[in-house]
Amino acid sequence: MAKKEDIELEIQQLDADDPIDEEKLVEEEAAEIKEQAKKTIQMIKEKAKEEDPKPNSAMTLRTILGGDFLTAEMVRRQIWLFVLMVIFCIVYVAIRYQCQQDMIAIDKLEKQLLDAKYKALSSSSTLTEKCRESHVLDALKQNRDSLLHVSDQPPYIINVPE
Asked: CA-CA distance, 20 to 15, in Å (whole number)?
């Protein structure tokens, strides 16, 4: 703040004296600001480095849990391994999902098959019951439209010589 006040006082003094000095003062301030900006940028460049520091060879629990061993260099070297692992995970999830969908479809089809077997069994038993001789004869007697009847005589055995 002290610089700002000094600059304002100098500007006021120069306003009273000469307008040409005011332009020189602005130019000097601009040059001073540029110089400070250059120094600041240079200091930032010195502090910021592109490379990560080399980790020491001692792997401790703290370095593992803290994630310090995952340096950019190591990640760059192993990037294809990470990509491959991600692809395998995606394929694994997709195959598992498809397998579950297939299992659900199989269960549904097994239930339908069991229902169809029970219907076939009940139809077969109903047909067997209706085809019995006693039921056929009762049906013929009730309708009275057939000349068929039960034989009163036992069957004859005919022997044919060979």
From this structure: 9
Distance CA 26, CA 35 (A): 14
CB 71 within 8 A of CB 55: yes
Largest CA distance in the chain: 160
Nearest in space to 24 (alpha carbons), one of 38, 8, 12, 11 = 11
Model confidence pLDDT, tens digit, residues 86-118: 999 999 999 999 999 999 999 999 999 999 999
> 36-59, pLDDT tens digit by residue?
999 988 888 877 765 655 656 677
Distance CA 9, CA 21 (A): 13
Q: How does DSSP classify residue 48?
A: -
Residue whose token pair is 């001692």: 58
Quickly tell me which residue has 């307008």 as its tokens. Answer: 19
Q: How far apart are CA 32 and CA 123, in angstroms?
A: 105
Region for 144 from its dihedrals, namely left if φ exceeds 0, alpha if ψ lies in -120 to 50, beta otherwise: left
Residue at token pair 């039921």: 135
